[in-house]
Design goal:
It is a single chain. About 12% of the residues have low confidence. Helix content is 38%, strand content 23%. The protein is an alpha/beta fold. A five-stranded mixed sheet has the order 1-2-3-4-5, sandwiched between helices. The protein is built from six helices and five strands. Strand 3, helix 1 and strand 4 form a beta-alpha-beta unit. The N and C termini lie far apart (47 Å).
């Protein structure tokens, strides 16, 4: 896909395990569009490890924080992709069940414009290229966290994502299960 004149693109791959400790962390890929000395988020890719037996509390929190970082206006440039399909080669019947469970969990995000894609272990470059092409074909406004930080002048601790993180961590202290 041709890129707009005077634009560069930056991929930022942010593992969830920088913040959380699940054994199989999810990743977040942020595609930035840099133009005329300004950097804007062009899209976000949330990678979900389909090989996980279940979504733990930290994965659920990471997804909730992700939605608060994006905000509803930016969900149209969000791709939620499943990875690590090779982990299910020993139990291929589990794949479609986990994928259906994931799509059910994502119902609200998908209804608001996010899309789901599978990144196949057999040809990940093709699938990743398709995801990036999809994002670059979108024209989205700022994410919620960008609006809060830049337009509203909030500090990071004052953002909706930070509020949710504090609220959840406090509840975990009360009920550590």
């Amino acid at each position: 896909m041709p890129t707009p004149k005077n634009s560069n693109y930056i991929l930022d791959i942010t593992p969830e395990d920088r913040l959380f400790t699940d054994a199989h962390p999810n990743d977040l890929i942020i595609v930035y569009r840099q133009s005329n000395m300004q950097v804007k988020v062009a899209g976000l890719v949330y990678l979900h490890n389909i090989g996980q037996n279940r979504m733990g509390r930290s994965s659920l929190l990471a997804h909730d924080l992700f939605l608060r970082i994006c905000g509803p206006a930016a969900l149209g440039s969000v791709v939620i992709a499943s990875t690590h399909w090779e982990a299910l080669l020993h139990n291929p019947a589990a794949g479609p069940i986990r994928e259906n469970d994931l799509k059910e969990f994502l119902t609200e995000s998908l209804a608001q414009g996010a899309v789901y894609r599978r990144i196949d272990a057999m040809d990940p470059r093709r699938d990743i290229g398709d995801v990036i092409d999809y994002i670059l074909g979108k024209n989205v406004g700022a994410t919620q966290v960008q609006e809060e930080l830049v337009e509203l002048g909030k500090r990071v601790a004052e953002t909706e994502a930070a509020k949710k993180l504090r609220e959840t961590l406090k509840s975990w202290l009360v009920d550590p299960k």
